[in-house]
Amino acid sequence: MRQILGRRELEIELPAGATVADALRAAGLPNRVDVWVLLDGVRAGREAPLSEGAVLDFFQPVGGG
Amino acid sequence: MPPRSKEELRREAAAKVTGVLVYPSDLQQEEMLWVEVVRAAHPHALIKSIDTSAAEKIPGVVRVLTHRDVPGLNAFGIQLQDQPVLCYDRVRYMGDAVALVGAESRQAARRGAELVRVEYEVLQPLCDPEAAMLPEAVKLHPGGNILHQGHFTKGDVEEGFARSAVIVEDTYQVPMMDHAYLETEAGMAYWEDDVLVVDACGQYIYRDQTQVARALGLPLEKIRVRAPYSGGAFGGKDEITVQIHLALMAYHTRRPCKMVATRPESIISHTKRHPAKMHFKTGASRSGKLLAHQVRIVSDTGAYASLGGPVLNLMIEHAGGPYLIPNVKIDAYAVYTNNGFSGAFRGFGCTQVCVAMESQMDRLAEALGMDPMEIRLKNVLHQGDLAPLGYPMKLKVGIEQTLKSARRGKLWRERRRIKNQLDHHSPSLRPYIKRGVGVAAQMQGLGLGVGIPDYAEVALRLLPGPRLELMASTNEIGQGAYTSYALMLARRTGLAPEQIELKVGDTKLAPDSGTTTASRTTYAVGNALLLALDRLEERLGQLVAEKLSLAAPVRLRLQGGRLMGESLQIELAQIVDDQGVEAKATFHLPVQDIELGDGLPHLLYSYGTHVVLVEVNTLTGEITVPAVEAHLDGGKVIFRQGFEGQSEGGIAQGLGYALFEEVKLNEGRFLTTNFDTYIIPSVMDVPYDMRTRPVEVKEGSGPFGAKGISETCTVGVAPAVLNALADALGVRFTRLPVRAEDVLKSLGEKGR
Fold it and tell me: Residue A54's domain spans which residues?
């Protein structure tokens, strides 16, 4: 994800009523099913509404041991 | 060991032993199609053409699919999507899928698969990882043949070696290993209205859902993945196996589709334990303190990435064992070849390096004239120490306790007497029987490690009855997870396990609880369900306050069918209606605050020490293992029978690694494709005398002090066998598996 975005963190301004999908678009991430989002630490769908100061983690589901 | 109480009986035990439990390979539906895969005819070749016309003419064949029929991304892979769903230009290993045949019967599907004509231009397979790393080697993937490499330096190894009184050095080789689960890869896909349902063996249904959706070009909500009870996985079902192929055939035919891999197909196609070549050089002072450790690892990841990168990272993390070493240098490579395809396997890299490290420890002890147990105890990590890679061990470290438990154990304490106990052989044979006792100690990271999101979300619903439902997506692969969840809920709520219902392993019913891997589910799901219970009680406190018109919510604790407050006690039935009361929680695994690579390092570890007794017939070379002791720190034990079951299964698998199992290939072609040539330990090979001692170092961050056990229970077994063989014969084996012919050869070399 860091490679796709070219950086580790970014701040995004969005209008009131914006959703996770809006944030993904604003971040320049293509609409891919394999980009997962944590909204304030909890797995969130594309339609989840954002509140002021929301923290989003974008990642691809990996795994490991 | 029998369960200590009815509560401790495995939840699915009766269904398993009576045969009513439905495994993925048992699934049946009306009108279903059988799906067979056309796999590569060569380990490395260019595809010139694919002709399906003859196959399509076979009576009963309904559909033949090729790469042209993959509507979404024709690739999959947990970390990198470098493996085609159906190959189009090139095949890179014998398990590569080129076409799918869906037919009314399995016979017709097989006949159809035989008649798919694929024209190849055969290429020389790349089988030597060292050669594959050279710049002039043919590239198997656009980025070259080195999938991942890690280089790590702490202190100054040269200076450490210069100060060392003894240095031991050797190259260790460990084989490719098959998971050999009882049930091969299997499942069924079908449409339920406009949702495509995939019921299949798997270890992370949410990630499988993503991989299926990506390949089919469908949104996630159009794919539902469920994981029925599966006949074993051990990491081998972590990557996609049948899921995308099943979904693809169901997508095109709109009919239920079923797949069950044959054993040869399973062995050829699914991931394996990485074979590796490991050069270890270790120096110690006269008093036995480790001073320097230099390691070079080449891990053969085969044709595709899967989890080859993270496995290599765990090799790097664990290459120094559970020891304090001031000077460390590690260079490690995971390399693409045409040798099958490797990935996750119980132990996940630790298994390989532990073979080398624990052999080195015994060799140092021998060179210094020290007791093998004492040299380990002299060097073990304690809380606050710096691990071999230099990060602090922040949590409790149980390695010393497991070693001391092993030292107190009968096998070690009485080893001199036990080694001379040969009465069961005839007097004339006794001079030719040699016995030895060996020890190995190890630690195993728990969870996915730093840098990889690692969380568990669960939901609870309390219903009248009382009945408590747990929704979690992690699934039962034989490890006993469901019983552990129910025991934790029962213990915390006072409900009986039969009042607890699990809605698990289903993307429609349960939130994302993460992977069923990395020894993590008891710890991660356990913590999440305890958090959810706190939330549930908060919610009940609000409801009680509303009902009784109190000014503020009441603090309540669920205890059996009652809610207990400081000054009140309420029957659940008064508060909870048929809708139930719900609560959700997400637990994030704590991680180190430094990041050295993907999943590197860990914060949490399980610890173990194994002691093995071997007996060798020096006339025939035959090796038997009469006894094994496992001293394991997985924190507080939640499910004792499950704990012992994991340990005993781990011992059997470890003995297989040490003495039996090797997937053999010749120029990329599999020579061992069934259990007639791929030999696993049978009931005759596993010792009757297996003792598991829980060394319960309570982990403060764990649910009831628990961590996990499912990998640390197997990792130390193989090196303990090697050390026992060295004790018995005075011969050091550096290549697994060790078979009778290896014993005879080595004794011949030694001049018996």
Answer: 2-59
